[in-house]
């Protein structure tokens, strides 16, 4: 062990489905392009639960947490992107500038995003797999400098960190992937944190009609606060009834844009069949490893338009994170309202249960 190795508290998942544990972990001395960030806040995202349950990969043990903001504490010898003391949001798209996507001018699809050069470990030397290359349910984490996006230091860390994943995913699905224009109509299926962010994004983009669809009336009430003009509780409705109601709110044609914010076949089908002919459908909800979508090929052909997955809301962190923090600071985007509760590091397992119950947009760990 190097004399510069640090020991900090962190939350790990040892095996699929097992409860998470708070344990000491070792943070190595940073490599030339690495930085150590003192984590101030980290949101509890559904992706962390998916890691814990083995729905994403089998590279246990996982160091969970990725929606994080904090202070750059130590920088490697070759770091130029940030400095010690900078307030940053962690991102999992540190574009390389060299892969085929970057060279085609599509860095939002970067296939070679940077991660730290060294691994964090348990005290016995077992290497940890950091969630989305970040691992921020910890007092400190090690990142590549490109994973650190500097933003206004006056921003609340609990709010800022949420741009690191779920909120940016939903917001970007509406603004970047769907490219909603002023006066258009949109429908969002699933009103958790990502779906509600898509609703807020649709309002920010100027959509005239924004329809929120969910099985939980409480979520629909919240959706109105973020910009939904109409809501549909689908709990006791058939697929055909939901589609009919969505179309009824858009002149019988269907919305210009539909967004599946859940990623399961029922919501995918609703988003697909509800949209206007030649409308744009965006899939931002992440499916699990076994889900499939089954529709007749003639329906795919006959509906025209486009179907696009939104990876990270097609965002560019260096462009988008500072911009949305600035919009929040100016009172034009309600980033802080996504913070439902502030919890301690040891409360992550309870936060997963709260998430499953659907009673929060985001629980945020504050350190």
TrEMBL record:
Gene3D superfamilies (alphabetical): Medium-chain alcohol dehydrogenases, catalytic domain, NAD(P)-binding Rossmann-like Domain
Biological process, per Gene Ontology: formaldehyde catabolic process
SMART domains: PKS_ER
Cofactor(s) essential for the protein: Zn(2+)
Signal sequence extent: none
Domain Enoyl reductase (ER): 17-365
Key words of the record: Metal-binding, NAD, Oxidoreductase, Zinc
Presence of the UniProt keyword Transferase in the record: no
Record InterPro entries: ADH-like_C (IPR013149), ADH-like_N (IPR013154), ADH_Zn_CS (IPR002328), ER (IPR020843), GroES-like_sf (IPR011032), MycoS_dep_FDH (IPR017816), NAD(P)-bd_dom_sf (IPR036291)
CC annotations in GO: cytosol
PROSITE patterns hit by this protein: ADH_ZINC
Gene Ontology molecular-function annotations: S-(hydroxymethyl)glutathione dehydrogenase [NAD(P)+] activity; zinc ion binding
Pfam families: ADH_N, ADH_zinc_N
Family of the protein in this entry: Belongs to the zinc-containing alcohol dehydrogenase family.
NCBIfam families: mycoS_dep_FDH
Protein name: Alcohol dehydrogenase
Organism: Corynebacterium flavescens
């Amino acid at each position: 062990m190097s004399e510069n190795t640090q020991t900090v508290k962190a939350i790990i998942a040892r095996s699929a489905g097992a409860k998470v544990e708070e344990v000491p972990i070792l943070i190595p001395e940073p490599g030339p392009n690495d930085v150590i960030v003192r984590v101030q806040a980290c949101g509890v995202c559904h992706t962390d639960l998916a890691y814990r349950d083995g729905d994403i990969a089998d590279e246990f043990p996982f160091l969970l947490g990725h929606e994080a903001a904090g202070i750059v504490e130590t920088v490697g010898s070759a770091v130029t992107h940030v400095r010690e003391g900078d307030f940053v949001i962690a991102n999992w798209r540190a574009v390389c500038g060299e892969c085929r996507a970057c060279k085609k001018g599509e860095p939002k699809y970067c296939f070679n995003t940077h991660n730290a050069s060294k691994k964090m470990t348990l005290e016995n030397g077992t290497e940890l797999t950091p969630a989305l290359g970040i691992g921020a349910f910890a007092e400190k984490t090690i990142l590549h400098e490109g994973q650190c996006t500097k933003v206004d230091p006056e921003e609340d860390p609990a709010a800022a960190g949420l741009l690191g994943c779920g909120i940016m995913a939903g917001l970007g699905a509406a603004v970047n992937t769907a490219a909603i224009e002023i006066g258009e109509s949109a429908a969002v299926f699933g009103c958790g944190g990502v779906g509600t962010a898509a609703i807020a994004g649709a309002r920010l983009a100027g959509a005239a009609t924004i329809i929120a669809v969910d099985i939980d009336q409480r979520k629909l009430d919240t959706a109105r606060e973020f910009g939904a003009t109409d809501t549909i509780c689908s709990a006791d409705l058939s697929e055909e009834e939901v589609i009919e109601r969505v179309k009824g709110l858009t002149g019988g044609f269907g919305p210009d844009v539909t967004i599946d914010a859940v990623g399961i076949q029922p919501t995918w089908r609703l988003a697909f069949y509800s949209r206007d002919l030649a409308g744009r459908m965006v899939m931002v909800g992440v499916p699990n490893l076994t889900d499939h979508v089954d529709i007749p090929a003639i329906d795919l052909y006959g509906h025209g338009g486009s179907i696009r997955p939104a990876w990270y809301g097609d965002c560019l962190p260096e462009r988008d994170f500072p911009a949305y923090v600035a919009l929040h600071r100016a009172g034009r985007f309600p980033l802080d309202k996504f913070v439902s509760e502030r919890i301690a590091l040891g409360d992550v397992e309870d936060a997963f249960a709260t998430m499953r119950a659907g009673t929060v947009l985001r629980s945020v760990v504050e350190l």
